[in-house]
Amino acid sequence: MKQEPRFEAALAIHLFKGGRLLLDARVPFGVVFGGTDVNEDVKDEHKRAVMEEVLHKARFAVAFTDKLKERAEELLVCESKKIYVQPQGIETRVASHFSWSDFLHSTGVRTKQEENLRVFLLVCGLRRVKDPLYLLEVFAEWHNQNPLVALIIIGPKIDPVFTAEVEESVKRSVGVYLAADLSQEELHAAMQKSFALVNSSLSEGMSAAILEAMDLGLPVLARDVPGNAAIVEHEVTGLLYSSPQEFVSMSRKLLDDHELQERLVRNGKNYITTCHNPMKERISYQKLVETLH
């Protein structure tokens, strides 16, 4: 940057994607770890070197969980005292004029028993690390046995090549649908109308969709990877599965066990209130940003 900067400080999201853009900036900055940083980008020697330089120059770094901080310290050369743990604060807002029937129709779901339909909503950006096709085959088989279950994948089309793969695969599968992306408030309304929130990621930092589902009173079924296991306690705040077959088995149990449904919803909501308070998050970031002056 040859011009004098027009800002006094900066905060970057993701060490590699965002932090590298600040390496030549003549302003103090902080960074927030993304799951991709320590789960994927760290495997690339060039990206790892860039992230270490970002950490060296940053005044502070924020990790969403203790596990994420530990992994960063294990895989990257960095000063431990620079890394602070601050979970995401969660606030949800539901669109008041959202039509569930219109959403299902526009997504391609055709049923005369809408009130009995059980929608499993997989919220993710369409990229390979989110692995949205992981459950495709077993869910289609399950749908053939029980036409009142449906899997709807929804999220922004981040990777155009992979998005085309997802679109083609979904077209060939029964009971699995790909919805157009919605605004945040509309998405929260769709989540609230769904039966359960699904996560099938190969790796995660801290899934906002999982936390939002808990806040909205939605049971969560998440793939058992470290980032998910850090926020989902199995059979307490959600269900963790390790294979597509286990996902179906747990989903069937959840459908039949109303006590389990109620327990997961109650505990999930309590967990969000206790551990993901947005006011606490604001105060933490205000204190950190003050160190940039």
Automatic annotation (TrEMBL):
Gene Ontology MF terms in the entry: glycosyltransferase activity
Key words, A-Z: Glycosyltransferase, Transferase
The keyword Zinc-finger is annotated on this UniProt entry: no
Coiled coil stretches, renumbered: none
Entries under InterPro entries matching the protein: Glyco_trans_1 (IPR001296), Glycosyltransferase_G1 (IPR052622)
Domain named Glycosyl transferase family: residues: 114-270
Protein known as: Glycosyltransferase 1 domain-containing protein 1 isoform X3
